[in-house]
Records
---
Amino acid sequence: MRIHSIAVLGAAAFAALTSQSISAAEIGGVKLEPYAGVLGGYHTLNVGSEYTRPGAQLRGDVHGALIEGVAGVNVPLGSLFFVGVEGDVSRGFDQIRWEYGVRGRVGVRTATGGLLFLTGGTHFVDPKGLYQRHNGTVFGGGVELGAADLGLSNFGGEKGPRLRLQFESYDLDSLRPMAGVVFHF
């Protein structure tokens, strides 16, 4: 529960800071591009011994729909590339109680301001029932499409809402497609 509280406090602090118009802030001469968003998706994990409580003989999949909040910051590396860090907290349904984690991002900007990215980091899954909480490595990638990418060039620019589509795998044993809206400040 302590990690959930830390994640919620971190998200609240991020929201408070960004509500004070910290857009593309600079710290020590480094430009920061903060963002936050809400995603939805589905996670199917291949259950192995790492999830099974001692004495339980369970096999199959742990699965469930997810509602996820994300917050992060990108640092431009010139006009084309970027690196970043992102945290997430997901509320699960069906057989998943909570998921949360932190990951690094590296990517490239499109000519119209969209983002193509790869991610990697650590992720915790807290399933319901006879399964136990487990942490592991998450890998993935995705795309963020801004207004210009969607043919709405008079709306938003590089800031504002973006459609995000991403696909991740947890310990290379799962499928985790997600989609939602991310707001860049």
---
Amino acid sequence: MLKLKALKGGADDRQQVFLLMSCNFFLEHYNGADPSGFTPQTMKKTTSRNDSRSPILEQMKSFFTTSNGIRFFARSKKCARVLLVTGAFLLGSSAAEAGLTFNNTFDGTWGAELSIGQAAVINAESILSSIFVNNVSLNITFSYGSGPGSGAYASSTFYNNAYQSYSTLKGDLMNAAAANPSNTVLSSVLSYLPVSSPTTLKFVIPTANAQSLGLGTGGQSSAGTVTVGNGTTWDPTQSNGITAGQGDLTGTLLHEISHVMGRDDYAYASQPSPYLTPLDLSRYTVGGSFNFTTNNAVFSTNGGATALADYSPTSDTGDWGGALTSNNDANNAFFSYGVKQQWTSVDTKVMQAIGWEIAAVPEPSTFALFGLGALVLVIAYRRKLA
């Protein structure tokens, strides 16, 4: 008996193999007219990673709405079972689509605090990998020391260590949006970008952000480094709240790891900033003009018409100032002791705006396939009881 866990490859590969199993059964047991072009040739079609609308599913759905399909399906409990399991498998594959993984290195600075650091890093990365599904693996180094004092900070490497033109960066983002049409946040950001560069400044792409756009690492062996300060007593877990007088290490790491992933802005470096990042393409003054300085900047996906969050004018200008976000948002510039820091919907949106993908909602035809199989089995069971 073939076990699902023995199937190798990505989620789409496993879906295609399982669909082929179901369709072969379908063809072997069908006793009526030709099922509307439902042939082995059409079953060889594949779906792209970003398009869950399998041509096989569409053909099955179309056939089962015909009189022949209804008669066939009604008398075939075996087929109902197969399609019921197939639908459940496809739903499970969609839920398990996440491709973001982390390769962590903890240097020798941790000492006795290593187990605490490792636990919090795993907690934070589990949250991020449950949200973002780009098929990339990020190499990050974690340090522990006096550098950031009572807080923490992150440094990122840059793709190719080279400046990018506005047109090149815009093209990379447009390619990512085309490959992932469900990322409506990125599509909206792009729709408000001008044809020509809005600045004379050049752009750099953080390595992890470049990976999310499908550009590779540009020769970089690491996406960046996160340093946790030893001037704070840290609570490594969020499950029971945060101990009074301690810092939320998981929330702090969500903040810093997302910096490595590309939530970077360098307006604080000088006035104006010496270079920009993809994050700056959604940085506006309320009312519609780009804002590449430290003051009065907001995150907007519609050209500045709506401010979803305000950027901090001090510390790190890629962080939230807190005026438009909750006081426990993980990406605020400052945190309070004893408070659990939450990853919020606006935090997800700002990552989508630079090219990170989230799991797509399963195609309705998948639910239909599952429901149709369940319905026929219920009908067959009732007939048996009668």
